[in-house]
Write a structure and sequence with these properties.
The structure is a homodimer.
Chain A lengths: L2 H6 L9 E6 L5 E2 L5 E2 L1 E9 L9 E5 L26 E2 L4 E2 L4 E5 L14 E2 L4 E2 L9 H14 L5 E7 L1 H12 L4 E7 L7 H15 L16 H15 L2 H7 L11 H4 L10 H16 L2 H12 L3 H5 L2 H5 L5 E7 L7 H13 L4 E6 L7 H4 L1 H12 L19 H9 L5 E5 L5 H10 L2 E6 L2 H9 L4 E3 L14 E7 L8 H11 E9 L4 H10 L23 H10 L2 E9 L3 H8 L3 H4 L2 E8 L3
Parallel strand pairs in A: 5-8, 5-11, 6-7, 11-12, 12-13, 13-14, 15-16, 15-18, 16-17, 18-19
Antiparallel strand pairs in A: 1-4, 2-3, 4-8, 9-10, 19-21, 20-21
Helix pairs in contact in A: 2-3, 4-5, 4-9, 5-8, 14-17
Amino acid sequence: MRMSEFLHKDSLGPVVEQDMHKDFGEDGFKLECGETLPALDIRFETYGTLNETADNVVWICSPLTADAHVAGFHSKEDKHVGWWDALIGKGKAVDTDKFFVVCSNILGGCKGTTGPASINPKTGKPYGSKFPKISIGDMVRTQKVLADYLGIKHIYAVIGGSMGGFQAMKWGIFYPDFIERLVIIASSPRFSSQALGFEIVARDVITQDPNFNGGDYYESEFPRIGLANARKLAHITYLSAEGMEQKFKRAAAKEAHTKATQAYATPFDMNIPLESYLRYQGAKFVERFDANSYLQIAHATDTFDLESEYGSLEKAFEGIHADVLNINLSSDWLFPPDESRKITTAFLNTKKNITSLEYDTAFGHDGFLIEGNKLGKSIGRFLNVSNSKSKTSNISTIFSDGVALKLLQNFIKENDRILDLGCGDGSLLATLKAQKNVQGIGIEKDETCILSCIHKDVPVLQKDLDKGLNDIAENSFDLAILNRTLQEMRDPLGLLQEILRVAKYVAITFPNFGNWSVRSALLFRGRMPKSKELPYEWYNTPNIHLFTLRDFTRLCEKQGLKIEKMVIDNDDALSKGLTAIGLKNLGAERVLAIISKKDL
Amino acid sequence: MRMSEFLHKDSLGPVVEQDMHKDFGEDGFKLECGETLPALDIRFETYGTLNETADNVVWICSPLTADAHVAGFHSKEDKHVGWWDALIGKGKAVDTDKFFVVCSNILGGCKGTTGPASINPKTGKPYGSKFPKISIGDMVRTQKVLADYLGIKHIYAVIGGSMGGFQAMKWGIFYPDFIERLVIIASSPRFSSQALGFEIVARDVITQDPNFNGGDYYESEFPRIGLANARKLAHITYLSAEGMEQKFKRAAAKEAHTKATQAYATPFDMNIPLESYLRYQGAKFVERFDANSYLQIAHATDTFDLESEYGSLEKAFEGIHADVLNINLSSDWLFPPDESRKITTAFLNTKKNITSLEYDTAFGHDGFLIEGNKLGKSIGRFLNVSNSKSKTSNISTIFSDGVALKLLQNFIKENDRILDLGCGDGSLLATLKAQKNVQGIGIEKDETCILSCIHKDVPVLQKDLDKGLNDIAENSFDLAILNRTLQEMRDPLGLLQEILRVAKYVAITFPNFGNWSVRSALLFRGRMPKSKELPYEWYNTPNIHLFTLRDFTRLCEKQGLKIEKMVIDNDDALSKGLTAIGLKNLGAERVLAIISKKDL
């Protein structure tokens, strides 16, 4: 097998670039800046087959400097595959046997879609400095032109990473009835000031290159040095500090410079791999990208700011109908997790079905390109949710005899909004959804559990409860469920208060440390008790704030909380007996209580 | 009061710039690169008075682009004071009534000390591209020339932040007997790869400015644009993402551009304050700094790498005699806390007296300049330690009747190395030092406690024990003391194993959850017990892994740990009685055990 065959063995191909052209006549194609373009050229690729109802579409939005070639290979000699090949293909997360996948080169770029190097029909010369300013919205409207041209009636999912995430959000805002699902990866509602600072420096470095000439350089020397330096700078922001440290250990042998980089050597060079690496990145970029396109697209990202545009993120997302999967990357500092979380929060507070994931990676922002396999796990499940609503899962683990579950089911009304804190694999919410059509959202730390939730179509936020709920708006849920986790929290009282801020009622279950078997273990054996309910050793137990039923009722009194309902659940005969004769604190093994603030 | 009087009211002044010149004859002043300089000019400032023994000196090392003007004002019209004025002056942390303070402009700079713009006596023209490459070591040796010129016999403390920290470490390495104390702030053993990446881009941006001309531009146009862009880039790395976000809220009114920045406006400008701010930083810098100096000094920092130079950080620090205070800043990502901690670790593992502090700031790397008052708290105490060794503190809080303390004192040998985990205000270590001349180091989270330790001259590391001890070398202590904190740890067993890796013996004290009063509270009241030993509510107790004396002895058996000594300490009569008749697990209120690995 030849090297290229090996590279291509899991990939689609050969795939082909396609082009469309549309004239917009007198009116032109209107841009958000107020100017118009007389016509649009769009270069794109498609994989898979559009079905008869023209609705099996997965639309990929390209990030800043990528292009339409998102998967597969163009010819057998290709040494590369598309930039998200790990994610898209036969049997992959975005399965081309099932979906019709489209990706286009973005407006303002330099790879076949109309951009500053295109010929201005009015002058017969490249637009250059005359190319109008474009926006993320313009990019999306251009893509809609392509969707219409392809006869697409409905998009099942729009997927975008980085600036592609900006476009995905705009797709959801502009065409709410056209789209079922949105996947947003390593993105944010706008650039941070720090990211914007780097953008400003990169822009100045390009526009102050003596060859830039205000953007009209197509008939002379290109501003290569400025563009290369801008790229070196940007490239550092795509990597993480940790990733760079691993890659460029200073102790590493001093590699020979490549030819491309020797040309840029300075008397202050240290002859370290990092120098040649950055210069290579700059030189390579200059070969494949146009400075005006870079400035145009960067300007579109710099000015993207949903909060300023719509008044608030919530107002921006209000009309979106799609279910959303939002993923952030731990070491991404260009689109930092905290910025990405604002997207999640706004979807949550506009009562959308939002699932959020926090991926651990050392690759920084570039992780959204490199970690295709990892991303595929959640994206694949999100695109292929199990629709068998009849299959209610086995949730007997919650309370063995079902008394508590029955109480909970009776308490819940149709269409209630429910927050399940520590929701595990989503079984309870899936069951409640099937039975009562509730809108449930889970919170869970564990990734495997979260993947199960996604597969069950249960929205879930990856989150550590110890970090609080301050991103969730007041009274946004009818009921919160806290199943056996209160005693594991760093600050149980603080969490309880937080939960009662966001939900009207809280259903809470806990093991009773006052149970007779617990007391006697300490009394007679003089050791920290272990039991079916408390199976850990003292030094490794997650149950760091144990309490008794009486402790709990006293706390409710003190905090002005009303116990609406309470049931006790026991396996043991003595426990059952003690409970039966009213010695609840001695008898109870497990407790379910539904509480509320008294002033309700 | 005029504005400048108000600005100057707590400052020294007027202070004056001073100059020295020294010819080095035939041999020249030898640089680490192998080349020589025929003579040195050094510009410096001094505050306070050198005492008769010429040893009351505090030496300040300048960071990259600062200068000798570290405190006070030059004339009544000055609108600024020196760059570390908050720290240095009458009654301030570096008290000029007590100390003779010196700071010089560094070698390679452009403010009066020999640098690339100085006249090369061989040619009668500025050195320019002919200026030899300088190193941090060269800067320090130049400063030693000044110290000798001033007749200084001994330096009490060298203080340096950022690149000044690089110099401080070199001072300690080069002149171990000359220096008593080192203060290193926001520094690291070398640049991270990320920081170095930005340095490379900045360097390329300057050297590729068409006006740079290889460094020989003094008779033509200066490379102003390149230097300004390099500065804008560097400036972003001095701020934190959080700090920038606070400073440049996108919603902020669009400020008018300053004149200086309008000159650089581009068609892609967004007219936001961040643009004018960065351009102002660039323009201002070009007025006060020379591109060759910037490249020279940056090159010295880029190539500074103690590990490569000496084989390891430990080997670099081995010969240092000084006591060290090392401070990192939470939001500094140019010299990140983790890099700074490597300095602490290396001093710790070469058995120096090292104190480390973690300062919380939103100012990023610039915090070392801006947070002068905050830094002054620890630096002031570090320079003015209490020498009254007779004053042993009140440490009765450890064990009420002193039985445990006596056991501990008997167990400890003269000159033992002791690690006190959770050392509080350092009283115990101060007492043990006075009595047994131990070399003690504390670990503590709380800043107020740490300041007390510093004042008592007890070395202490600011550290969260839950984050482990993996930076401490094996068997580096004779004894570790863990006073009433094991039950507060997230992972008590893991910590215990870690402690026994770094220390031969562990003296551990804990409250006994098996005490009769605890048991009866749970038995008869059915509530989580509260007592003098356990004063918290179940939901807010830091004691998250309670255990009984029996639990503890069983754990020791299981883990193969030997209990060398044990004493029980009680207040309560019944507890005393129960202990006396051998019912220790029922009787003990508090326990001190000294344990070791069995194979000792």
